[in-house]
Amino acid sequence: MKTTQCDHILRWLKEIGPITPIDALREFSCMRLAARCDDLKKLGFTIDTEMVKGVNKFGDNTRFARYTLREEVHVEATSVKTCEDRSSCNQVAPQDGCPHSSEAFEQSRFL
C-alpha cells in the first residue's frame, strides 16, 4: 500500500516532534498540513495546534501553526475507511463527502 501524507506526518510527529506547514511542504510536498492533521485527529490522535509568531523572508511579521502530537492512541486494530485515490482526495471516510470508493486499512499501522 502507498505511504500517504498522513503516514509521513505521523512518523515525523513521533520521531522528530512538532511540524510546521513549511516542514510539511519541504519534506512531503504537503500543501494542506492542517487538513492532514484533521484527518489524523479523526483517527483518534490528539494533535495540539500552537500559533507561532515569526518573521518571513521579507522581514514582515507573520504567524503560522505548529502541530504537536500530545499523546499516543492505544487502540486495537480496526477497519477504517479511507479514499483509494490519495492523489486527489484525502477524506478519511466516504461519509465525509469523498466521491471515491473506499478501501479498509488497519488503523494500527499508525501506531
Description of the molecule:
With 111 residues, the protein is α+β, with helices and mostly antiparallel strands. It has one domain. 26% of the residues lie in helices and 28% in strands. It contains three helices and four strands; from the N terminus they run αααββββ. The chain has helices at residues 5-15, 21-28, 33-42, and strands at residues 46-55, 61-71, 79-83, 102-106. Strands 1-2 form a two-stranded antiparallel sheet. The protein has a two-stranded antiparallel sheet with strand order 3-4. β1 and β2 (61-71) form a beta hairpin. α1 crosses α3 (33-42). It is globular. The protein starts with a helix and ends in a 5-residue tail after the last strand. The model is unreliable at 76-82 and 85-111 (pLDDT under 50).
Query: Biggest sheet, in brief?
Result: 2 strands, antiparallel
Rounded to the nearest angstrom, the distance between the terminal CA atoms is 16 Å
Q: Kindly provide the radius of gyration, computed on alpha-carbon positions and rounded to a whole number of angstroms.
A: 15 Å
Mean pLDDT: 77
Q: Can you give the helix content as a percent range?
A: 25-40%
- Count of helical regions: 3
Uncertain regions spanning at least 5 consecutive residues: 76-82, 85-111
Shape: globular
Helix/strand order = HHHEEEE
Read across the widest sheet, the strand sequence of neighbours is 1-2
What's the number of domains? 1
Please identify the structural class as seen in this structure.
Answer: alpha+beta
In total, how many beta strands?
Answer: 4
